[in-house]
């Protein structure tokens, strides 16, 4: 018996063929187009496909597909100075009239005099002192508004681009690839947790509840009849080096299966993640491209990378070369 060929059946067949073509295209489409073909790109794709394929001996259920990714130097530029440090410098100048004692007190005096080298010569201790002085006493909304104003116009001191344009295009693609495969992606940053939370969703598609970072103590208060959270002049967590696994334990509650960093401050995080049971992947972003970004590692005061480069390969961590593994660095190069 021959069934009549109707326009409806033709349309249904066409839709079925089109759907099949879309599925085939989706499987063939390159999820990391800004990454150079090579062993590192292949390792990333193979790892994701292996842990997400039902029936695979290395299949990982969605509840345990957790990725921990550093921010400064891993998702966006950190040279010549951490962007949060640039915010600190601006805020010191903004509120200096309220602190006449800063005219003679270091490191504030040097900031106000424009001598940044001297102001920052105190290293992490100086940055911490500036952080406490400029953050403590602010409510959550006051701090958020201040950071948003800063990021709306702050420009990179070398490129002149907005700081928010200094993200890495290959990493944006990797974030999308992981999220498309039902990974829960967390930012685990040495920077301030509240600072990163302001822009994490807009820049990376990562909601604030998936940000782990350094933090000050906080206190619940009533101000002007309203309940608020107020930053205190004391440290809750320094989310760097050994503090990163602690932050992961405290805020995530499960050991991730994938970790990406760029400096020795990320060593303990990668060590903690990659020594767990089951399939694991660790990656280090190596800043070795002086033409398109910066070239620095062992001798840098910011993003110093010595131990991760020495021990990483022995531990199976992939060393991602910006120069060799990335076709472009920032999104505008893609246009």
Structural notes for this entry:
The chain is of the alpha/beta class. It has a domain of about 220 residues: Rossmann fold (3-Layer(aba) Sandwich), CATH 3.40.50.1000. It has 13 helices and 7 strands. It has a 7-stranded mixed β-sheet, with helices on both faces. Helix 3 packs across helix 6, helix 7 crosses helix 9 and helix 10 crosses helix 11. It is globular and about 65 Å long. It catalyses: O-phospho-L-serine + H2O = L-serine + phosphate; O-phospho-D-serine + H2O = D-serine + phosphate. This is phosphoserine phosphatase. It is an enzyme of class 3 (hydrolase). Its EC number is 3.1.3.3. GO terms for molecular function: L-phosphoserine phosphatase activity; magnesium ion binding.
Short description:
The chain has 335 residues and is an alpha/beta fold.
Report the radius of gyration as a whole number of Å.
23 Å
Average residue pLDDT: 92
So what's the CATH class of the domain at 32-80 and 166-334? Alpha Beta
Strand content: 15-25%
Order of helices and strands: HHEHHHHHHEHEEHEHEHEH
Number of strands: 7
Structural class: alpha/beta
Arrangement of strands in the largest sheet: 4-3-2-1-5-6-7
């Amino acid at each position: 018996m021959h069934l009549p060929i109707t326009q409806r059946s033709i349309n249904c067949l066409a839709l079925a063929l089109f759907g099949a073509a879309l599925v085939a295209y989706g499987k063939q489409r390159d999820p990391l187009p800004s990454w150079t073909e090579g062993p590192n790109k292949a390792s990333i794709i193979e790892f994701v496909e292996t842990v997400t394929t039902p029936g695979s001996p290395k299949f990982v259920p969605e509840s345990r597909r957790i990725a921990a990714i550093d921010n400064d130097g891993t998702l966006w530029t950190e040279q010549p100075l951490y962007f949060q440090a640039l915010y600190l410098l601006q805020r010191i100048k903004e509120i200096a009239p309220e602190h006449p004692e800063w005219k003679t007190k270091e490191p504030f005096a040097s900031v106000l005099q424009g001598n940044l080298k001297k102001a920052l010569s105190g290293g992490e201790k100086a940055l911490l002192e500036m952080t406490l002085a400029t953050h403590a006493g602010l409510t959550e909304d006051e701090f958020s508004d201040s950071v948003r104003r800063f990021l709306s116009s702050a420009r990179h001191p070398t490129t002149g681009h907005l700081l928010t344009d200094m993200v890495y295009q290959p990493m944006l693609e990797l974030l999308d690839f992981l999220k498309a495969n039902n990974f829960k992606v967390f930012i685990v940053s040495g920077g301030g947790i509240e600072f990163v939370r302001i822009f994490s969703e807009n820049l990376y598609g990562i909601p604030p509840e998936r940000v782990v970072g350094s933090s000050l103590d906080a206190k619940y208060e009533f101000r002007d009849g309203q309940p608020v959270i107020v930053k205190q002049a004391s440290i809750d967590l320094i989310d760097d080096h050994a503090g990163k696994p602690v932050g992961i334990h405290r805020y995530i509650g499960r050991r991730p299966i994938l970790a990406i960093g760029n400096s020795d401050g990320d060593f303990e995080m990668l060590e903690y993640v990659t020594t767990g049971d089951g399939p694991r992947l660790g990656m280090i972003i190596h800043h070795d491209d002086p033409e398109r970004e910066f070239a620095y590692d062992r001798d840098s005061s910011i993003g110093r990378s010595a131990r991760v480069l020495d021990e990483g390969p022995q531990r199976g961590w992939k060393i991602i070369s910006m120069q060799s593994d990335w076709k472009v660095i920032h999104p505008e190069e893609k246009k």
